[in-house]
Protein 1
Amino acid sequence: MKLIRNTIKGLTFKQILLFSITIISFLASILFVYHNDSFYDRTIAKVVDTQLKEKIEVVDSQNNKDQLFTQSIIAEIKNGELKGERIYLMNEYSASGAFDQDYEVGNEVFISIDKDRKESYLTGTIYDLKRDKYIVWMTWIFIFILVVVGKMQGVFSIVSLAVNAVLLSYALDVYLHTSTISLLLSCGIAAVLFTVISLLLVNGVNEKTYAAIIATLLGTFISFLITSLVMWITKEEGLHYEEMQFLTRPPQMVFMAGMLVGSLGAVMDVAITMSSSIFTLYEQNPQISMKALKTSAMDIGRDIMGTMTNILFFAYVSGSIPMLILYMKNGNLMGYTLSMNLSLELARAFAGGIGIVLAIPFGLYTSILFINRKRAKQ
Amino acid sequence: MNTLVCLGGILFLLMVLVGGKKGARSFIAIFLNFCVILFTIFMMTDPLANPVILALIACTVISCITLFYINEVNRKTVTAFLSTMITFTILILFIVVITDQAKIQGFGEEETEELTAFSLYLGVDFVKIAAAMMIMSTIGAITDVAISISSPMQEMKNHNPTINRKELFTFGLSIGRDILGTNTNTLFFAFFGGYLAMLIWFKDLSYSLGTIVNSKVFSGEMINILCAGIGVALIIPITSWITAFFLDKEKKKK
């Protein structure tokens, strides 16, 4: 108790205010997401009882054994005119659950109600699970962990992430609503803004940040140029756009824009690591020779190069795991499976890697440029 | 010539030019990691195998390659490795619960329209595969943070041998905080870039906010991003504590 009282006493008014606002918005959003049924146009029902009706074993042409289940569900309607009434639903699902799922008591589901009422009770079909509360819970867990671990820096990273998300969404809107501007251009402009905003927010207004911004932009755009050039010279041989999903626009454009945005974060990370360590070295010893500065900075660059490329590599390649398994289990050959599903991911990872490696010398030389200017002034 | 081979070649060349021997090793490590992932996926197609366990084993091997092969086996990398393993274990428990609850496994309805030629009853557990996918997408970031914290802590200890455990721990935390922002940024942009097509799709077909948030594909990606962020934050205190513990223990021995 004493500890808690002392901790509270040690807080400033601003901190208490920030803390209270966070707690209040946390409670309000949780309360909202559990009682927002009336805001949805689609009918929502809460499962109150489930019963397993049937279980069949199935074997497909590739000799994959699976089980199919049929469950009958009684649910209570949560919104609309029929609110409070009970409805009888059927759900079929498989043990593997590649595109279906079982429902348990307490789950909320989106449903449609059958119009012609043949029986004395309501019947309908289930569309999907209502997942909004999981997103809200996860977001809060993420925010709390980031703030507890990172304190003020945690708050800044959350703010910069939120700003970037809004900016990206806005850039896409601009692209979709104006026919003249291309996706690449709108993402390119967005990339410049992302870099400036994120680096200023995370690192403050100083020369370190300016050097990092220049290095990031150089690294990203030059690696983008190299990749485009290679794609042009090789006529994109080996790149398979056929399996790209969610396509409403030309796939090549979407892929290139995704590549530009995707490598940006990693290049920024490398650029800021380079510039802040070079500036720290300089501040600790202003008389340090250029040669010593370069050697130490290159050492640091070498240290981060491998792990940084790994980050992108895993973030990209892991996303294809379910699709790869689907292909392989359907009797496709390994080579075909990989080239169909991984070619774009690997190209993206390589392009990002090129950006990361380029950012090391760029970060080094822009920082040295700024340091030389500083020295000349003194 | 094949675009991928060409891009890979350029990356290798640049890595060697900038990084010398270590650059070459970094490139080979990526290649080895790719082999480990492929082998793991291959194992996951066996219905009797548990994808979560397989992912944990793969993560162990991959962290060994990333930490011990690119760098060497020394106190820094050993403590980084230990902290990575602890973080994975905590994170995977959390991920298994959330994938099971939110039912985000497999493919969304938008995707299955294109998959009509495939049999989808495959006998493998897609819930566990989704969990495995999430943990493996964060492994690069987690090992990166671990080594970025344990390595300067070791330097600090070398410069000030009298430093005590608590001061070391605080030093580790402060380094972690500095890299937290840029690391979450790296992951977010990587994911954003990958999901660009999906975002354009939602906007083009004017999905309502309610539909987007509740759809399997979007909530799956969101949960993946947030889990990655949580992993990157969690590793910071864990690495700081473990490294401080080992460095301090060593001092007492002397």
Note: The beta strands of chain A are 43-59, 65-77, 86-94, 108-113, 122-129.
Protein 2
Amino acid sequence: MGKFWSFLFLLVPVLGVGLFVWAPFNHHWLPRDVSAHGYQIDHLFNFILGLTGVVFIVTEMLLFWFLWRYDGKTNKSPVKFTHGSHNLEIVWTILPAATLLFIAIYQMNAWADVKMHKPDMLPTVEVTARQFEWRLRYPGKDGKLGTEDDLFHVNELHVPVDEMTLVKLDSADVLHDFFLPHMRIKQDAVPGTSIPVWFKPVQSGEYDLVCAELCGWGHYKMKGRLFVESRSDYERFLAELEKKQTATNVEKKAEAEE
Amino acid sequence: MSTTVAGSHAHDEAHGAHAHGSFLSTYVFSLDHKVIGIQFLFSTMLWLFVGGLLALGIRWQLAWPWTEMPVIGKILFAKEGGQISPEFYTMLVTMHASVMIFFVIIPILAGAFGNYLIPLMVGADDMAFPTLNMLSYWFMWPAFALMICSFFVEGGASAAGWTSYPTLSAIPQAAPGSHTGQTLWLWGLIFVGISSMMGSVNYMTTIIQMRAPGLTMFRLPMTIWGMFITAVLQAFALPVLTAALFMQVLDRMVGTGFFIPEGLIVNGQSAGPGGGQPLLWQHLFWFYSHPAVYIMILPAMGMVSDILTTFARKPLFGYKPMVYSISGIAGLGFIVWGHHMFMSGMNPALGTTFMVSTMMIALPSAVKTFNWLGTIWGGKIEFTTPMLFALSFVCMFIIGGLSGIFMAATPVDIFIHDTYFIVAHFHYVLFAGTAMGVFGGIYFWFPKMFGRMMNEPVGKLHFFLTFIFLNGTFYPMHILGAGGFPRRLADPYHYETFKHLLAMNQFMTICAICMGFSQFLLVGNMAYSLFFGPKAGRNPWKANSLEWMAPSPPGHGNFDFQPVAYRGPYEYNFPGHDTDYYPQIEPPRPGEKQPEHH
């Protein structure tokens, strides 16, 4: 039976690596990256995958080999009576320590780019998450939020391609999370705190905006869309938004006067 | 050093009252650590069943969203036409995690195995504080009752996730479960905390004060080291959780607003004057709950170390590095909590600090894994059921440990945070790791607990099916996570990005259902062996540590002689010795060179 169990444990690295080889070629992998910074994240993911993959294969194969070789039923050599090895302990402490320290330092820049080096500009849009929708507010002609010409919209976030977008992220009620899978962006929206989020899309298209923090019974349907479009399309969208809004305002005013 | 020095005679007089007491004092409010341990074991196994059913509910929804559940759907969800409602789904994810963490893993490790094994393995007649010990079990019952009640109150059980993040949890109108259900949840956890604290004080005192003569700290089995460090972690971390729980109770019942900022309108209603910060809860919660992650694995690591040495018939490789590793994990465990909060809005520079400490905590886990491999290298492995479970712990812990590095890397975490990648990670640590270690522990110590052997072929079948189906359930979660598949979402498929992941989820659900059914083999095996298993004798596995020297099951006061330890517990195949094991209590032969630890 020892051989049978050894093979069962061998299945883990074989199928485990197999699935990770199969997945990227069958659309079960990271969604297409359409951001300027995303390649750093994907590179790190693949780098750590490679590194941990090697450790995974080596340790699991050792486990298999030890089970196979030292099966009590077939192993005729005497038990290696030992309490350990000082030198081995030092080797397998220092090697992983150095590797982990390397990973730690290697990633710092990518993190700083996405979360710390805030671009010096006024917010492109204010996103306020609330149960269960994304309220959007564009600064309008004066480029400033909180003025009379602000433009309002819900759930459909339009941003210009190849330009940095700075989002002022708020929440009106509970925690939400502003997750753009294709943009490699994720940030909790916290009530009472405005958090800046920035990204630069490099490909036009329509993408998902996901709420990734449990926010109540309707969490699953708190779905937004991200429209990455050319500068001219983006401006056309804003102009139409303005036209619609002015029309509604005029109507409202008329109603109020009546 | 030990209270047993006085001998079994004096002991009989002291404890005679409950040795021949009524049914109530012998089996219900027993002061005997063994009875309390078994009470914990059976209670937590019942909760394991509840938590497992909740998990299958989640899996059903993810595989066949908004469809009628076969057989039980019509009974459970009559109003929704037999399907899971979105609000019930959020309760499922919340309660599955809460039950598994606070009512299964923590109490089965510390409460069941800790209680049963600590006095036996240190050669004591009972815990240092038997009454406190009895109370630590009975304080679980208010918690059990509150959790069960919470399903039936208006709005239903807590639905803010097991992390219970404000403001969703703190404002009653934010979610159906945030009405009465959340208050019951908070009080339930406060009771669990009191129970854990009483256990923790007891374990530390017993291990420090009541060891048998000759049993130095560095002659303790790894199980005891795991329990000891766990108790220390509980003692230091629990007060912070308790404070946080009370603060949330006050926010909800008195309107203190510790965690609620001002001016919120939730569901059309004002949330009160506020003035607080939601992130404060996260810091306090994770200051406890990160050490709690280690509370949920260190005892299992200890148990696995003991099982591996016994069935490899070899000393533990690197005893002291193992002890230093778990101590290192415990120390570092207090300065890594921020890695749960990389995306929370916490200062990103602080994120970098937590990233570095998190990378470092991977190190002691790596050292432990290498030492386990070193332990089976060159042995004579016996493939018994407990050994198979212990080996699978090592095999699966490698996966759980390595996947942690992805999340520790802050930039990668931006993408995989709150996706199924993290779900894969902690299920590999807690289910494929701890739960497999616990199953191994049950098969290993059952003969000691009940004096009868469990059935080996059935045990092996249980292992085989669990091993296959658990990997079928949890391994694909890594791939889902790489696809960005978010957790806690009742219907991820209406996002274009995740549509194609449905088939994989259906496969996982089928595996999960099969895994659930496989557990009846364990229950059946235990129930049958309890009455009809072959008699075990004192030391069925030919092991060294003290508990195997006592009768099976041990009577009141545990030992029928005064145990004295002459060496560590791992001297298997000691050169020149006539048997391949060398119990701790056996005096050295004249002229025999005694082993020393390196």
Note: The CA atoms of residues 293 and 430 of chain B lie 9 Å apart.
Protein 3
Amino acid sequence: MPVAGLVITFCEDEGLRACAVEALAADPRITLGEAQRGRKLPLVTDTETLEEQQELWRALVNVPGVLTLDLAFEDFSDVGDFSSDELPSRWNKQPRHPEDDHGSA
Amino acid sequence: MDRREFLRFTAMTAATAAASRVALAQAPGPTVALDPALAQRMGADVRWDKAPCRFCGTGCHVQVGVRGGRVVAIAGDQLAPVNRGLLCVKGYHVGLALYGSDRLTRPMLKRNGRHEPITWVEAVDIIARRIMARPASFAVYGSGQWTIPEGFAALKLVKAGLGTNLIDPNARLCMASAVTGFLSTYGVDEPAACFDDLDRADAVVLWGNNPAEMHPVLFSRIVDRRARGERVDLIDIGTRRTRTTAFAQHFLQFKPNTDLAIANCIAQQLLASGRHDPRFVERFCNFRQDTAQPSLNGAPLTFAQYRQRVARYTPEYTERISGVPARDLRMLADLFADRSKRIVSLWCMGMNQHTRGTAINRMVHGVHLLSGHWGRPGDGPQSLTGQPSACGTVREVGTTANGLPGGLVVTNAEHRHEAEELWHLPPGRISGTPGHHAVELWRRFSTAAAEGGDISTIWVQVTNPGQSLPNVNKLFKPSRALPDKFLIVSDVYPTATTRDADLILPSAMWVEKNGMTGNSERRTQQWFKMVDPPGEARPDVWQTLAVAHRLFELGHPGMRDRDGRFLFAMTRPDGTEVPAWDWAHFHDVNVDEKLFEDYRRFTSIKHKNLAPYGEYVRHRGLRWPVVQDRAGAWRETRYRFVEGEDPFVAAGRGVQFYHSVTRDDKALIWFHDYEPPPESPDAEYPFWLCTGRVLEHWHTGSMTMRVPQLRRAMPQAYLEMNREDAQRLRLQDGQRVVLETRRGAITLPVWIEGRGAPPPGSVFVPFFDERVPINELTLEAHDPISKQPDYKKCAARIRPAADPERR
């Protein structure tokens, strides 16, 4: 259950900003903090898995009005799956040269 | 409050503090031990300490949380001046990079085609005996990821011990042209400016630079100013659109290699309209041009001759060469002509990985000097580095084929003498003949001895040349089939290089050992070991000490100083010797501190003064030169060569280039003509191929591809292509194609106008993916002065892969 502290920077458009805050507030996985001068909003994401966390962050940066997403804190002490089962493996290397290759390997 | 609530509270506190600091542009105080608030928040079971991030040359500081001997949390360091509590996506995952499931944990020797575990005693003995047998054909290939003590130990082993200069780093591949640019402009290496400029500049000119992906924290520092209502203009001069382009007011798309013409065009316009800064130029500048055989110092040129040389680079003429519209070239010159504006130029690999890399580096400095945009906060040229200690270890310690610590060089007899005195060596121990630069070193390693391949053993530390060297089919792979070529690799994970190594040494990584690094703004940083390395992995610096001592035991004369003492002898405060080469006693003394203090004695010779080790323990880095004030406090330097900032500038001088090539305290403005690149697209190979990095992965991906979050975010390399080209070749998004150059071919999927957008006739491939070895295709042609290869442009062709199902 990864917990992260993030900082969102909003665009200048106040209408878009208000809609974005509303959208963020509706997500139970997100806790909003107190907006700082300069359109900076601290928030916390709390998700069940790292995969869900990644999906949530990808969604966050696509919310209209959100300009950038920066990260300030990440706890992964109770996340069990960070020894990846999908490591880059030279042993699983794809054939690089199809049949029509000219044999440069 | 349960643990979950506690974590959420902690995360919110850290994010709020970071948001506040960035929103208000607060720079933290420079001198603190730890962030007490963070220490309190996480409770007694998590121990926190500072460390610079493991990855790029920005030098962000992180707070590392450790519980039960394991890194369990990472926070941006609120007290770090560079990043002010924020991290990029790689930075906050840096702790996970320790915990890939396939860490190397035992020394392994290749026997009958298989890597078999051996003991450390055996491994060290094998290396020492190979050196004893053929010391003049043994070389070390190091890295801008070496810590300062690691690089210093390797350099001392080779130069003070073996009496050769057969050492060069991977940084030759990434910033050597920046070095020669600085040396030939100011007479001494490394930026005069610093990151503070990013908070003050009115305009930032990006020369082939994509900081939104490569230096995201620095880029945030610029664009955050806009969020605070400040105006800062971005001018992106590039060969393809990137994430950075989206934030730029102006995008000047130029044809590869024509940046020299653009720089000349700025100079031409400034001079033609009398809008250069004659006062600054007259007081502080001389002029130079290349000799027939390009050299570091060139030949003198008068101002009138310089004016004449650049005269033909009118906007219209330059438009024909570069493809940049004349109106945009005028806009650029108008910007530099306006001295009410403060302008920062930023660059990194785009200018450095260039067969004219030294030239374009010199010319960007020259544009700033000619226009007087130099020496004020927010107003000057600033090169960026890609590795965490390319500056600290390679450029400052001097781990190159011609370097000595502190900016000294082996070709200077006085410098050799000074080094021999400081190391207490017999006179003549240090060779005056430079070793081989990286490309030549590997060429000789991949050439049979009978055909001049006089390098028989290379010890690779902290880098992955099997994936990162250009044209690996020529420079790396042939050695693996040659008899008596022996490759030793110290690393933390299996890589394309360890796969082919004869001997693999498992290394400790980042906070598994003490360390010091130096970032792109001359900031020297320090951290302590926080967790144990896995299995039998050990720090590279111990590995070097152990081999040196084994050589000492075997009777190598170079391992003794002029009194017969071991070259790396270390003592306790009471004077008793510590056998730090013996792993059982390695931690009896702070080896990093001992080596750093040995190195520090060199740094005052060329005004690169460093503070005692203890000062770096207390700070989040200090920018050199660091000197004591009258009260005894150690003070860093923001701006070099500027009166009131640099302690070595004489009163009343304003600006003083005190290492001037011309010995008159003046910098050099260079002229270089545009020349076509060594390889351009033609009928047979019609595309430009450019290579580079992506946000999520760091260099060859050996660490970041083992962090699931980063791997999922960017799972594999791709061919980035313009839609128009894709339609013409009838290629679909995701379709696998064969990309081919005169040096090799690979198969990979197409991404049509994906993250970046190359223009028609140009493609881009990142190099992080071991399974897509793009450097089988790149060109080893290199700059004649810096010897840095050009990874950014060569000719390629593309065709659909025969079997699209093979993914």
Note: Residues 27-35 of chain B have pLDDT under 50 and may be disordered.
Protein 4
Amino acid sequence: MVDDASVIRASLALLMTDLEVVLAAATVEELVRAGPAVDLVLLDLHLVNQEQQPDVRQGIAAIRALTARGYRICVYSQEERRFVLAACIAAGASGIVSKAVPTDRAQQLFLEVAAGGTAVSQSVVGILEVLVRRDCITVLSERQRQILHGRARGLTYAQVARQLFVSESTLRGYWQDLTKSLSESLRDLTAAEIERALGLAPGDLLEFWSGDDTDAADWWRVHRP
Amino acid sequence: MVGRNARWRVADLPTTKVGVERVFTYFIAGVRLGTIAQMVPAVRVGAAAAPHHVAYLACWLAAASASIAVSVVTLARRRPVGAAAATADFALACLLLVFAPYVVLPGARFGTWVAFEPGYALSVIITASGVRSLVLWAGGLVGVVVCYAVYLGNVATGMVTTAMGNELTFVVYAVVARMLFNYIRRIAHDADASRALAAELARREEERRARVLMHNGVAIMQLLAHPGLGGSQSGLVDQAEVELQRMRAYLRGATSPEAASREGPDEGGGQLRLAELVARVCDRFADLRIDPLLDLGKAVRVPVEEATAVERALESLLLNVRAYAKAENVVVHLDQDGGGVWALTVSDDGVGFDPASVALGVGLRDVVVGELGQRGLGVVITSAPGEGTTVTISRRIPPPGRRDGLGLVADAR
């Protein structure tokens, strides 16, 4: 995992006993240097701190740096802004889990993402639904649209499964496939296309959809000094 | 007296049971006094030609006095005379008819007001048909018909058809008059019952309004009184301020306080942007983890009163989530399809409940289902223990067979 907070790095293995923590790094650079073979990298989005690591990669740049080296990424952050989270998916992250989620639930989601699944936050599901409805993403079958329709409204797997007359486990499988497909489709979209679909002004997403994958610019800060 | 006199005109009388009885008194006095007016011109001639002058005048005065007495008493008591007086009225008419052959010459008994008795009897039949007892009315009518036959005696020989016509006049007028009395009384009765029903419905509606208005405020006060709220205290205080404004507006008698004071999403023309309103309500529940997904409903504009009802319902739903659901996440989703039909969905992943076995509280029953149902909005509540709760508010018409009288669909699984 990569997190600038030492208390998080130290406690993760203790709190989530089903996970095997191979390396707990403070920076992406440290992880890249060590180059461990892992199933999943848990990545905090905010890694810059003025005292110890003022000039390190973070956010989208960190995701791109790691996915470029073949790592599977699950963002584990306090970040709530939906465009930031969507940008993480677009940059290649396979999952997004909020630090506000109870640890049991978080651990379960990490395991699902490590096993090849995806974990997409509700706000990002909302964006994906808009993109599908606005025909920015057109690869969906009717059933997939129905699943997305239910999940975007916060319905549980059980509720959606009943609506579609399938078992809950089958529905979970469908959802994994669907979110993976949607995430890949999101990566193919440009910021301008998403801005149009969401009714945003041109350039509104520029600070989120940074094209620079090497710079450690603090793209994520809305309120720049 | 001025106030009392101001209500004497028929046009000013109330259309109540009391009012129609008063109108009946005008009718009765008019007919009876009118009959006297018809009797007056012939009295002198009648008395002069009568075999017994004094007896004729006595009969005439008895009839006139009875008519005046009935008119005065009726007007004074503001309703027709009772059964005893009606009996006496019929009896006097019968007596006068029976006694007439002794005071009126045979040649004057058809078609003259010298023989005032048949005309007088007709006025009694018309005015006394309002008596409530069917037996008394029928008895009086039969009595008059029989006494008229006695009155005619041999005079009717050769004029049978005229005599039969006169007898039928008594019967027909009696039936018609009774029908009118009874029908008008029934109208008045129905009018009074309808007013009482309307008043009761208004009272219930006011009670419902008060329940709807107070419900969210009470829930907030309950939460504020709960110890250990921590960070959510300030959000609750903000909400308490909103509810306070609503309650004040209610006490002032304002019908739509939010409409007057709302800022922001007002589109003009009495329309509001629903997405902005929903977002604002969600902001007031910062302690809940709410994902407001409103992009698909950004274009939804609704009338102010409808928006107010939706706002109140959404608040009530989120207060329910806060108080009971133990939810980790809440999704508030607004959508609008190509046909302009919008749907607001509120889902939580909390403990849920079984709608089949749990009676809905005031919040769901009145504030959400009742209030929105009145505005033609459909409300679908889906919940089950352990599976959270989903409430959908929309203009969509629920599928046939899945809607009860309240517009509520509750799936229990």
Note: Strands of chain B lie at 266-268, 271-273, 290-293, 301-303, 330-336, 342-348, 378-383, 389-394, 408-412.
